[in-house]
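Box S1 | Example of a co-folding query
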Amino acid sequence: MTDPRPAEPLPAISEVATDALVAWFAARGEPAYRARQVVAGVSAGRASSFDELTDLPLRLRAALGAAYRFSTIGDSHVIGTDQSLTEKAVHELADGQRIESVFMRYPGHGASAPRTTICISSQAGCAVGCPFCATGQGGFGRHLSAAEIVDQVLWWRRARADRLDPEHHLNVVFMGMGEPLHNADPVFESVRLLNDPGRVGIGARHLTVSTSGVVPAMDRMADELPQVNLAISLHAAHDELRDELVPINRKWPIEAVLGAGQRFAARTRRRVSLEYVMIDGINDAPLEAERLADLAHGWLCHVNLIPLNPTPAAPWRGTPREGIERFADILRRGGVATTVRDTRGRSIEAACGQLHAQLTKRALGTRAASPELVMVEG
Ligand code: SAH
Ligand code: SF4
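Box S1 (continued) | Returned holo structure for iron/sulfur cluster
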């Protein structure tokens, strides 16, 4: 009789502890340096299977392939725009869940070096349910494992190896699908794996975790990951409005969230970002700017104003540019460092809050037919 249960997938190599891999090699009479070789080879983002780790003997490559999964990311489809400066990938996971990640290039000019930001997902869907966010509108799927998080970065490294030389500044932001601090253990582990110089080796200062305000996990982050950047999605400066826009506010209201932000800043001496999505006629009144100035004044933070990207399920639109500038002026006059952000990739739904991974392969094909878009099988 056949077993009706699907086979458990093999452990994912990108989250296997180096010690465990050392033991695995030792059991085969192999020296410890083999484990470090494998970890480095997998993290470098050049090979796409164990077979391609050519500094290992063939029999070990085969044995690794029988024991571990090289990547947790299955079929992936890329859509690009802005002359391919912004690209979004929809990735299929082993159980059929779909997640999205975004690759944004910023060409250098003058003294500034070119840099790339990869925006990754921490969950399939999100339980917070912010009404302006496409991920929130789609509900919660499941948590991602540390390997599923890290593998999004490795996937882009492989897919765009030609554009990522070793000198290139690479930033990773947890601003894709999901609330990272609802999935804190795997997210923290993925941060360590991304940061580990023997693995992906991205400097902690180039890693940013964005949260809607899960207060206990923010405090844990200050303890456990004090070098990593914290962004708080505020979006309103009084509780009645924030209860609607960021429903987790009913559990941890503004005072609690900003209290955790202040503890993080005091403890880590790192400037906290307050993200503020500008929604026309909803949260962009001068009075709201004054309230925000009061909340943000006098501690180590800065405000990022981001125009809303419209989503199908909400009637709202982004505040026009002049309105955003007026809002920014009030903040600056109140002594608050403020940046007006651009949005990238609107037309491919790769901008913040437009990640929802509902697209079927057929739909992706149709979208790719538009002259502005290209689709590449990954
Ligand atoms: N859940 C986390 C991280 C993922 S969302 C958080 O909320 O912080 C990443 C950022 O995208 C958040 O600041 C979020 O508020 C913002 N965002 C969501 N929907 C958006 C939209 N439609 N337009 C612009 N930004 C949006
Ligand atoms: Fe979740 Fe962040 Fe979207 Fe809110 S904005 S629903 S917390 S992903």
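DSSP finds twelve helices and 13 strands in the chain. The pocket of iron/sulfur cluster (ligand 2) is lined by residues 126, 128-130, 133, 135-136, 178-179, 212, 233, 353 (CB under 6 Å).
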